[in-house]
Amino acid sequence: MYEKLLCAPLFCIGSLFAQGTESGKISGNFQSNAQIYYEDSNLGIGPENLPEEKFLSNSFVNLQYTSNIFSAGMRYEANQNSLLGYDKRYNGEGIAYRFVRINRNGLDITAGNFYEQFGSGIILRAYEERNLGYDNAFDGIRLKYSPIEGVYLKSLVGKQRWYFDKSEGIVRGFDGEISLNEIFKALRDVRSQISIGGSLVSKFQQDLDPIYILPKNVVSWASRFNVHHGKWILGAEYVYKYNDPSATNNFIYKEGQALLANISYSQKRFGISFSGKRVDNMSFNSDRNLKGQEVSINYLPAFTKQHTYTLATIYPYGTIANGEMGLQAELSYLIKKGSRIGGGFGMGVLINFSNAYSIHQAQIDEKTSLGKSGTLGYTSDFFKMGDEKYFQEFNIELSRKINRKLKLIGTYVNTHYNSKVIAGYDYFGMIKANILVLETQYKLKARQALRTEIQHLSTKQHDGNWAMALVEYTVSPHYFFAIQNLYNYGNKSKKNHYPNLSAGYGKGTNRFTLGYGKQKQGIFCVGGVCREVPKSNGISLSITSSF
Amino acid sequence: MKKLLIFTSIILAYSTCVAQDATKLFPSIDVKSLEGKLVNTNEFKNDSRPMVVAFWATWCKPCTKELNAISDVYDAWQSETGVKLIAISIDDARNTAKIGPYANGKGWPFEIYTDPNSDLKRALNVNAIPHTFLLNAKKEIVWQHTSYLDGDEYELYEAILKL
Predict the structure, then answer these.
(1) What is the SS3 assignment for B69?
(2) At how many degrees (to 10) do helices A2-19 and B2-19 cross?
(3) Counting C-beta atoms within 10 Å of the first and last residue's C-beta, which end of chain B has fewer, N or C?
(4) For residue A48, what pLDDT is reported?
């Protein structure tokens, strides 16, 4: 009897899935990254700093069932134990993500885990970046509803993921977006498209502090607009947060605010964009006692170029949540083929400039030092920049096809990197670096290609000069082989080589990559999040699959 | 015995679901146009001719390579098969303003949408980009591929020609 009772609901679920949903399907993906670590006396990796396990791996599988109105899914994670560079609190295994979602008559209900973003994310964003080990998903309830065309409402309540646990605070949020052109008939055929939006987010956390009386509920609100007119797009979002003393802001009672604005123009073969931002005391965590970004409620994007060439990623920028002001401009242009400069295939030009400075800060009164705990911290003039430069970068990339087989891409980057503020280095101050990269792409046959990169970074500070060379041979659609070496020849204490060999095989959505070599120590960033990767020597294997 | 029964019933229930996997319909998810308008993927249309959905980002080199390669032969592909490519950018707020200018600066003739909350990316189980899907006239996923190696566009075109 007991068995029957247990089995019955399972069969019911099975047939429920089968009934209303002829289009129902199960799908998912899988990823496993593993590495064997070796000692390396040149890199200073001895038995004492080699992981005890010698073999570490991070894996997960996502499974989801989807039909017209119903979907459900889960992710099983197994980090036994986590790869070096990932937080050790990820060690372990279990179902870290599961949800059901019902979408009927315009009401979309999610129960369980979900990712969400309001506006640009500066007030609320839960997302995952698996390769960084970043995941601040909510566990709770989310509703989405569109009462009439052009009005989109979202609300949520939940706690955020904190490794294999949950953050203490409860987050409540509401967001509305209105597309004016869709609502008002008179505006339907107007060339300008306008949308406006607003959000309200609050978090609740008990106050157990022995010294201060802390706000248990912290409210923040944001408003935004977006105008599209012909080839122009203009958008901005402003967020305000009431006092939220936290470990990140040294427990000051000052309000927080941030403004992002951007404008762009583009037409065929030409585009230009400008962005500006100001961030003031806008770290917003669902646990005020945690200093890192692991339970961030909001997302403060770095307005700098996201590089991919290895040497250009050595000094990456991440937003300083306590305060910064910055600008970015980017120009993209394809010089016409047939012209003198464009040659037979045209030439691509990509120019980017970005910077970030401290914000203006003044003492609240003569007796109180700047940013003192338990006070209002400081006052700040919204339109005034601070004196300290955090970051500046200029880069230009020229790409040109020489003939049907050969393409060249040249890149120059000039970086100013305030290592004390960004990375917490004590001795290097403002690191100024020049980076040059020449990439060649050569088609041997229709499906075989050879790609090379020669890179050089010169700087008088920190680790000094670097050189790098890479050769990659690919055979479509299945194979690639690559060999590369980084050489830190300008380092005064140790001139290390970091050679690496890798090969991969892919078929459909399955991919296997095997690598052997040395990895330099560094900061690896995607989006606004960075992670320290320690130096290592070893064999790595990565398998990904999607089904 | 008890455990075995439970286990069998789970497997049975599961296989009932799996048996439904006859279709590979493209999911219905909201994405955003570059103008900032919400668009449901149900509205992706190409008069019953094939569509290619390609995930990319402004920071993804192989994605740019893939879209450049397809852009070079797109006119010929279109006149022969009527195929349409829809490029989905997974760039977040860091790069949102740059997507349009970037794509235009490359001269890409594609329809472009953004997936800022990665909803479509998750619904399609995309692990890493580039990841490219081919949809037939019924909007069923008939072919997909991850990563890009020089010449992979020929594989895609062969798959389009088979439709």
Answers:
(1) helix
(2) 10
(3) N
(4) 87
Q: A105-301: which CATH number, 3.40.1350, 2.40.50, 2.40.160, 2.60.40? A: 2.40.160
Q: Exposure string (b/e) for A40-70, b if CB count within 10 Å is 16 or more?
A: beebebeeeebbeeeebbbbbbbbbbbbeeb
Q: What is the C-alpha separation between A517 and A43, in angstroms, rounded?
A: 12
pLDDT of A525 reads: 60
Asked if A24 and B14 come within 8 Å (Cβ–Cβ), the reply is no
The answer to whether A286 and A298 are in contact (CB under 8 A) is no
Q: Is the Cβ–Cβ distance between A194 and A181 less than 8 Å?
A: yes
Closest by Cα among A534, A529, A462, A532 to A498: A534
Q: Could you write out the three-class secondary structure of A60-97?
A: EEEEEEECCCEEEEEEEEEECCCCCCCCHHHCEEEEEE
CB A124 within 8 A of CB A237: no
- Interchain contact A98–B (C-beta under 8 A): no
**A116-131, pLDDT tens digit by residue?**
999 999 999 999 988 8
In 10 A of CB A383, how many CB atoms? Answer: 8
- Protein fold of B23-162: Glutaredoxin (3.40.30)
Q: Which residue, chain included where needed, has tokens 């012909």?
A: A230
Long-range contacts of A420-429 (CB under 8 A, 24+ apart): A421/A320, A421/A358, A421/A388, A421/A390, A422/A317, A422/A318, A422/A320, A422/A390, A422/A391, A423/A523, A425/A462, A428/A461, A428/A462, A429/A461
Q: Which two tokens stand for residue A253?
A: 């009672």
Question: Using the 8-state DSSP alphabet, how is residue B26 labeled?
Answer: P
Residues B47-74 pLDDT 10s? 999 999 999 999 999 999 999 999 999 9
Classified as helix, coil or strand, A118 is strand
For chain B, how many residues are written?
A: 163
pLDDT for A106 equals 86
pLDDT for A514 = 95
User: In the predicted model, is pLDDT for residue A12 greater than 90?
Assistant: no
- With b for 16 or more beta-carbon neighbours within 10 A and e for fewer, the A16-35 pattern comes to bbbeebeebbbbbbbbebbb
Structure token pair of residue A200: 């309200």
- Here the ipTM equals 0.91
Pairwise CA distance, residues B93 & A235, whole Å: 11
- Looking at the complex, does the CB of residue B116 fall below 8 Å from at least one CB of chain A? yes
Q: Identify all chain B residues contacting A508, using CB atoms and an 8 Å cutoff.
A: 144-146
Give the B window 55-94 contacts with A, CB below 8 Å: 58-61, 65, 92-94
Query: Is A534 within 8 Å of A40 (Cβ atoms)?
Result: no
User: Which residues in chain A have Cβ-Cβ distances shorter than 8 Å to B3?
Assistant: none
**DSSP bridge pairs for B42:** none
- Give the whole-angstrom CA distance, residue A86 versus residue A529: 13
By the 10 Å C-beta count (0-12 exposed, 13-18 middle, 19+ buried), A413 is classed as: buried
Name the average pLDDT for chain B.
Answer: 87
Residue reference for tokens 């296989």: B15
**DSSP E strands: which ranges in A360-489?**
385-401, 406-418, 430-445, 448-459, 466-475, 479-487
> Which residues of chain A lie closer than 8 angstroms to B92, CB-CB?
117, 121, 127, 299, 301, 527
CA gap A373, A352 in Å, rounded? 39
